[in-house]
Design goal:
This protein has 360 residues and is of the alpha/beta class. The chain is built from 15 helices and eight strands. Helix content is 54%, strand content 11%. Strands 2-1-3-4 form a four-stranded parallel beta sheet. The protein has a four-stranded parallel beta sheet with strand order 6-5-7-8, with helices on both faces. The structure holds iron/sulfur cluster.
Length: 360
């Protein structure tokens, strides 16, 4: 059995160690590129969510590398996430792409089913599997820690791109880290290298929060590297959603004490309950960013994403009440780099203007 999975930002680093921990041979899908997207778009229905199309491309590219089994998470809620796996399975069957699919539904609602699937996949003593899960969690936290540092550095570095180059080396070091000590060493060394990167003399910086649907927030191919673009425009980016937060919310039901935002406390009265996907978090995180004095918020969403459309519909009320500008960007396979860049530059200009006006 050669397993693969959907590519989403740096999630591969976590899933690889977890699946290897239970003794499986892992085919990491190649990083998402235009080819990945084109493959998915060619075979998926036009109206399907963008993440479904990209994941389909991941599976087709992983097939070229010998994968025969897909492991993926299912989902619940009022949007289309619950049908993802079934739709993808049908499409793959129609194009004669032979795959076995193992879908993990949320453990709180389907615990015995999850246990049976783990048993089916597992080829090692359970202690080794637990070790893989712990190592995966530690790697997720390390990636998030370093990525936040890189996001802070991007608008400040004297020579653009240095922090990203260091981060790529850190990902390789974290990938090969076999225990907690090696992970800690990789983090420590990377932070020291990042700290030594020359900075520009003081430039007027903006702080912008990124909220939205998890896939569009975490996958650079889909959001056209929006964080790097903002960094080069002098913007420090802080995300509402991180890999570790997503794992904590979905796998551990939020039991681990992670610092972060709490939509149940911040989203009301604008949005009082879960609306599927990350719509509730988008509203709650926007309020939290406003209260922390951020200059603006960018909401990212796949075109036609229902939960984010609901969140978008209440954003004008959030903007008025909290006094924070919010720009919503819908992304699909037609989204062009020039159009996105123009919108970002205009938004950043407006934030600078507003900041100057406030300072007078
Ligand atoms: S959250 Fe949005 S993108 Fe994800 S499945 Fe639901 S509708 Fe589609």
């Amino acid at each position: 059995m050669k397993v693969t999975f959907p590519h989403m930002g740096h999630l591969w680093l976590v899933l690889k160690v977890v699946l290897e921990g239970i003794g499986l041979e892992v085919v990491v899908p190649p990083p998402c590129t235009r080819r990945t997207l084109e493959l998915g778009v060619r075979h998926a229905p036009e109206s399907a969510c963008l993440p479904l199309k990209v994941n389909l491309g991941n599976f087709l590219e992983a097939k070229e590398q010998g994968a025969d089994t897909i492991v993926m998470a299912g989902g619940v809620g009022p949007c289309r996430i619950g049908y993802y796996a079934q739709v993808q399975q049908e499409i793959l069957r129609d194009i004669n792409c032979d795959y076995e699919m193992v879908v993990f539904e949320p453990p709180d609602a389907h615990f015995s089913e999850v246990r049976d699937k783990v048993k089916y996949l597992n080829r090692r003593p359970w202690q080794e599997g637990v070790h893989g899960v712990i190592l995966g969690w530690q790697k997720a936290c390390a990636v998030d820690d370093l990525e936040q540092e890189v996001q802070r550095l991007r608008p400040r570095e004297a020579s653009p791109g240095q922090a990203d180059a260091v981060f790529q080396q850190a990902l390789a070091a974290l990938d090969s880290a076999a225990n907690r000590k090696a992970i800690k060493r990789a983090v420590k060394e990377t932070k020291a290298t990042l700290a030594a990167i020359p900075r520009q003399a003081d430039a007027p910086l903006l702080r912008v929060g990124i909220v939205g649907e998890i896939y569009t927030v975490l996958e650079p191919l889909v959001n056209l590297n929006i964080e790097k673009r903002l960094g080069s425009l002098g913007v420090e980016v802080v995300r509402g959603l991180f890999l570790s937060r997503w794992i904590n919310d979905n796998l551990f039901k939020g039991l681990l004490p992670l610092p972060g935002h709490h939509p149940e406390k911040t989203a009301p009265p604008f949005l009082n309950h879960f609306v599927g996907g990350h719509g509730w978090e988008s509203v709650g995180d926007t309020v939290a960013f406003a209260r922390q004095g951020y200059d603006g918020v960018i909401q990212l969403a796949p075109l036609t994403c229902m939960p984010e459309i609901v969140a978008h519909s209440v954003m004008p009320a959030v903007q008025r009440a909290q006094g924070i500008p919010v720009m919503t960007i819908y992304l699909d396979e037609q989204t062009g780099e020039a159009g996105l860049q123009t919108r970002l530059e205009a938004f950043v200009d407006m934030l600078h203007w507003q900041k100057r006006k406030r300072a007078i």
